[in-house]
Amino acid sequence: MTAKPKPHRKLTITVEDAVYRGLHKIIGPRNISRFLNDLARPHVVRDDLEEGYRAMADDEAREAEAAEWSEGLAGDVADERRG
Questions:
Q1: pLDDT tens digits, residue range 24-52?
Q2: How far apart are CA 67 and CA 60, in angstroms?
Q3: Could you give the CA distance from residue 83 to residue 79 in angstroms, rounded to a whole number?
Q4: Mean pLDDT for the stretch of residues 70-82
Q5: 27 CB-near residues (< 8 Å, 6+ apart)
Q6: CB-based contact 41:48 (threshold 8 Å)
Q7: How far is Cα 40 from Cα 33, in angstroms, rounded to an integer?
Q8: Cα–Cα distance between 47 and 50 in angstroms, integer?
Q9: How far apart are alpha carbons 61 and 63 in whole angstroms?
Q10: Residue ranges of the alpha helices (H) in the chain?
Q11: What is the full DSSP assignment across 42-55?
Q12: Is 67 a residue whose pLDDT tops 90?
């Protein structure tokens, strides 16, 4: 399954000269947009988090393992109270 390309928008931003030079030197002139996009995304886009939770919930093997693990914790707590 091929992912549908996400639409892009052009944005003009202003940064200090030293920041621009650093981005250009370290990130590279053709990678600045992607770098800034990836840096900002987790702070401003919430749908990825929801999609991630949905994907985890749909993973039945992982959910079964998580349920088994949490049930084991409940047993450990019960054992501690007895001892």
A1: 999 999 999 999 999 998 888 877 667 77
A2: 10
A3: 6
A4: 68
A5: 35
A6: yes
A7: 11
A8: 5
A9: 5
A10: 17-22, 32-44, 47-58, 60-82
A11: HHH--HHHHHHHHH
A12: no
